[in-house]
């Protein structure tokens, strides 16, 4: 039976460009083109720091934006030209990896290409580490491939990345469920899984990531610091993952590791009601900009 991919041709609440639909469709849907075009609109806050680009005061809270429509609002407020026109760094949207993935997913879906955001860990940022990262999984014929829209030519050169960003090898990006399974088997060291550059690592980080990836597989693309339900039981404040949650995640990960289709992702969420996102999430606000987040409760 063919994979169920049709839901991934349709926008979610978060990828829908709304009033900017025509503007966004001007972007070419070819993954190779997206890898070059998306970084012309979005700059990662960390990249800005490394390149000595100051984040303008008007962009300090860009990282809190959840929808493509709002993201494009900010892009156009700073530079109203066509989507295919590159912006000077100071006029771009200042986000994180999830914003690159969300925008690229929106462009692909706008052209009818099945695409979805994936939450997991990249092995090409910090040697020996599995670093928290979000990418796009898109359909190429009958195969799912990975696109890292954040990896522009400058980033690839800096990191020594040899593979093309529109075809990231599966061993270079581990989806959250695959990472969790390997962590549980001892194939991954929990101390090297998370955001290693700031010391936020551990099994708890992988556990929260599984929740966010299952949500994204069901077209509910959250922010990297959002958590809910059982995710509230673990974190920097409580690093031990309770046995009951561990067993539940083991079962979920066996099903969602790799590239499950839409029907499979929906069934997992149906069967494991504890995974479902609650109306309120525990998240971070950034009144002075990323990465100085302030814990808060919010209704997305």
Output the keywords:
single chain, 300 residues, alpha+beta, 6-stranded mixed beta sheet, two-stranded parallel sheet, 10 helices, 10 strands
Structural summary, described in words:
The chain is of the alpha+beta class. The protein has one domain. The chain is 33% helix and 16% strand. It has helices spanning 21-25, 31-37, 45-50, 68-78, 97-110, 153-159, 176-185, 203-217, 243-256, 262-271, and strands spanning 42-44, 93-95, 115-122, 130-140, 143-147, 173-175, 193-195, 200-201, 281-285, 294-298. Strand 9 and strand 10 (294-298) form a beta hairpin. The radius of gyration is 18 Å and the shape is globular.
Describe the structure in brief.
The protein is α+β, with helices and mostly antiparallel strands and 300 residues long.
Described by strand count, sense and barrel closure, the largest sheet is: 6 strands, mixed
Q: Give the N-to-C terminal Cα separation.
A: 36 Å
Quickly count the helices.
10
Number of strands: 10
Structural class: alpha+beta
* CA gyration radius, whole angstroms: 18 Å
Helix fraction, binned, reads 25-40%
In total, how many domains does the architecture comprise?
A: 1
Order of helices and strands: HHEHHEHEEEHEHEEHHHEE
**Mean pLDDT value:** 96
SS strand fraction: 15-25%
Give the overall shape: globular
Question: Could you list the spans in which at least 5 consecutive residues all have pLDDT below 50?
Answer: none
